[in-house]
Amino acid sequence: MQSTRTEILEYLITHSNSSAADLSRFLEMTPANIRYHLAILEKEGLVQVSGQRTRGYAGRPILLYNLTSPTLGENVLELLGILLEALGEGEDSRVMLNKITGLILEDFKTEKGNLISSYNQAVAFMNERHYRASWKATPDGPQIELRHCPYRDLAKTHPQLCQLDEQIVSSIFNTELALTKKRDFGKNPFSPCIFKPPTM
After folding, report:
1. Is 42 within 8 Å of 50 (Cβ atoms)?
2. What is the pLDDT of residue 103?
3. Which of 111, 153, 115, 152 is nearest to 135 (CA)?
4. 173 pLDDT above the threshold of 80
5. What are phi and psi of 169, to 5 degrees?
6. What pLDDT digit, counting tens, does each position of 108-163 carry?
7. How far apart are CA 159 and CA 149, in angstroms?
8. SS3 annotation, the chain
9. What CA–CA distance (Å, rounded) separates 174 from 164?
10. CB 193: neighbour CB atoms within 10 A?
């Protein structure tokens, strides 16, 4: 026997913008019980409020629900993998990576004249993009650690993403930096990618 939440998800596949009352009629349950299950599904990121419907009289509007995009399924990773294959390697690839880096950093600005503050701003910018970045001073320049790869599944098979990170880190810290240690995706998922000046 299917669970109530599974039945709600299956119903929403073919009945988008449904209310708790719509679901309660179909599943022969009270609207309060349906709302309880919808709240759990919403917290788990499986459903979302997609709109409202007025009641035609005073009172709160009726909430309408849809499945979220990940629940419906996406081909984003597959598409990105194909694009990276098309990007390939060589001079054309480097030119394209430079262009992508420029677009990513288009709105990034740092304080002039305060190196430590600008490095901290660079780390904050990268952490907004889920890198779990940090930096420390060394005699040869900054050492940058990235403890999370926001495109982990693709980076395992597409080294262009590591090259992109190298370009982003070098640009954002305004220092030539090289990827000297690549994270271990297997044994220690929190092992960092480490970027250092090439002379280190």
Report:
1. no
2. 92
3. 115
4. yes
5. -60, -45
6. 887 777 888 999 999 999 999 989 999 999 998 899 999 988 887 788 888 888 88
7. 13
8. CCCHHHHHHHHHHHCCCECHHHHHHHHCCCHHHHHHHHHHHHHCCCEEEEEEECCCCCCCCEEEEEECHHHHCCCHHHHHHHHHHHHCCCHHHHHHHHHHHHHHCCCCCCCCCCHHHHHHHHHHHHHHCCCCEEEEEECCEEEEEECCCCCHHHHCCCCHHHHHHHHHHHHHCCCCCEEEECCCCCCCCCCCEEEECCCC
9. 15
10. 22
Closest by CA position to 144, among listed 169, 167, 162: 169
Domains, the chain, in order of start with CATH, read: 4-72 (1.10.10.10), 91-196 (no CATH)
Amino acid occupying residue 141: G
Among candidate residues 171, 160, 169, 172, the one with its CA nearest the CA of residue 195: 169
CA separation for the pair 178, 199 (Å, rounded)? 9
CA torsion angle for 184, 187, 188, 189 (degrees, to 10)?
A: 70
Closest residue by Cα to residue 151 from 76, 98, 101, 89: 76
1 pLDDT above the threshold of 50: no
pLDDT number for residue 32: 93
